[in-house]
């Protein structure tokens, strides 16, 4: 009876506290805002799909090693930045040769027709790829919105997908389709716009009259699971009024109970404040809170018809990249760039489906996992990544695993953990025995290969564990690219 009274009392206290927790108010300062927890689903998700899509998808061209979604800026500034040696006017010359010197960027709005866009097909592909969330560019730095918005037209002409080109609410259609699946819906939003008159002439008015009402309209209209901001680097967070906006977002907005944000809220704030941390074309980062690496399948985020098959990362590289990021506790946000008519290029579809096939076998070693005691098992040698250019290409992971340069170390194994089990992911299928260092087995330890229905034998060798590999024919291999061993009941 005493235990019953104690349980009832605890339940009563919990019920009394629930409204207090739900009604928690965040102050408009980082000290308070940074206490908002990142929802567990995000840490469990591990794999998301980024989508860059807009008027820049019409010309869909920039030199290899640069971002094609920056077409307007490259065109009007006659500058280029990326990996490679550029004169700077390559996009301008391409534009003049293709469209003429008097053809303004804004004409691409009408040509952005999205007439072949099928949101249900996209959503089905994302689910089949094994993605747990997507992030769609609702507005990039050119200011064109993929949803009907009043502020998009304050240049003096219509500049949104409902009135120009597609004549469709593309954000709304994809949001509706994705929410029929288990996949979470996120929206990218650029804080600044290169050539908006207010941005160029009165940045405080731009924030007050354009940015803040526009981003609030986006949140209220679609209530995304993620608000993925960008273009924050031109001004400090105070001038963006980021703390004020986030307090509104967390306390008052229609999405306040569920919305998640990243860390791009002002100059110098990345990996310091906001929600989860972000990296871009980087590797080897580790943080003490949830984080995400974003990069394209090729180099560009937007579709770049100038990129060839060899410019796209192989399925093997993308899978190993995912494993590498996850072993360091992060998520991979992998970008695709549809064309102006709404087609996802077949090579991008193929890569997504190949990743999905691998995750169908190995998802247990990825989804819902956390960092293990060590992220990887290295061979002897130099661990530094040889890197030229401003951005780290995806081939880095192949050099770190299956194709090292002389004298360089390789990651022999990657590790994740979940529910008391250690997952050991090998980028090479073992021809002989597989040695996992610094792992102590117990009398209850069991070892299995995901996708293979027979238990594996192993031996304890001091502080190491040696898996004795059976003879497995090529047609018996459960997957390609990387193989996951589940080791349970360790010390």
Automatic annotation (TrEMBL):
Coiled coil: none annotated. Residues 1-23 form the signal peptide. Residues 411-487 form the Alpha-L-fucosidase C-terminal domain. It is an enzyme of class 3 (hydrolase). SUPFAM superfamilies: (Trans)glycosidases. It comes from the Bacteria. PANTHER family: ALPHA-L-FUCOSIDASE (PTHR10030), ALPHA-L-FUCOSIDASE-RELATED (PTHR10030:SF37). This is alpha-L-fucosidase.
